[in-house]
Design brief:
Blueprint (H helix, E strand, L loop, with lengths): L1 E7 L7 H10 L3 E6 L12 H9 L5 E4 L9 H14 L2 E4 L5 E3 L5 H38 L12 H11 L3 H8 L3 H7 L7
Parallel strand pairs: 1-2, 1-3, 3-4
Antiparallel strand pairs: 4-5
Helix pairs in contact: 3-4, 6-7
Length: about 200
């Protein structure tokens, strides 16, 4: 079977392009995690990825826009991809057509696959860290010049916290109710026990 996995980092981003791509590829099912960091949240902690792992089997093909949709951490991506390769899954990046075939038995093909995978995993983490560093530098310069106001708050922490307490809701349920990220709920409820 053909599956698709997508992820967007923030609730402000739109996953529609990835959903459309999954449809155009004719994938039987697609799994999209929204508002989830590829650096701070491991794939195994994401609902969409967990659901995917329940159904993907040997001989299946998994499409992703780019490997950083799975993870932006070198070690995490390596372990996750190793698991898929051991299951006999083929992973295809739609952005450049690169294939990582877990079905191959040829040692040279495995070596090339694993070397390219290692390079792409390292590049994904380096890219994330570079962007964060450039963003921090830009913010520091803007603060020095008095131009930085920060991102305006779009949620009411007190309302989120009150609703979660009243409902006895989980962090995930609260995030779903308010259509915000899990990390936003955690920040709003940081002083609650078991937050």
């Amino acid at each position: 079977m053909d599956f698709y996995y997508g992820r967007v980092s923030t609730s402000e981003q739109n996953s529609e392009q990835q959903r459309r791509e999954a449809s155009e590829l004719g994938c039987e099912r697609s799994f999209i995690d929204e508002g989830v960091s590829g650096y701070h949240v491991a794939p195994v902690e994401r609902t969409g990825w967990q659901e995917l792992l329940k159904v993907v089997r040997e001989g299946d093909t998994l499409y992703v826009r780019w490997l950083d949709r799975i993870s932006r951490r070198y070690d995490e991506l390596h372990v996750t991809m190793r698991g898929l390769m051991e299951k006999g899954v083929k992973v295809i990046c739609t952005m450049n057509g690169m294939e990582f075939d877990g079905r191959t038995t040829d040692p040279m093909q495995k070596a090339v696959r694993d070397a390219v995978l290692a390079f792409m995993a390292a590049q994904g983490e380096a890219d994330y860290k570079n962007r964060r560093e450039m963003q921090s530098r830009g913010i520091a310069i803007a603060k020095e010049e008095g131009r930085y106001k920060g991102k305006p708050k779009t949620i009411d922490d007190a309302e989120v916290k009150a609703w979660r307490t009243e409902q006895g809701a989980t962090i995930k349920a609260t995030a779903d109710y308010f259509s915000i990220s899990i990390s936003s709920v955690k920040r709003a409820c940081s002083d609650l026990v078991n937050a």
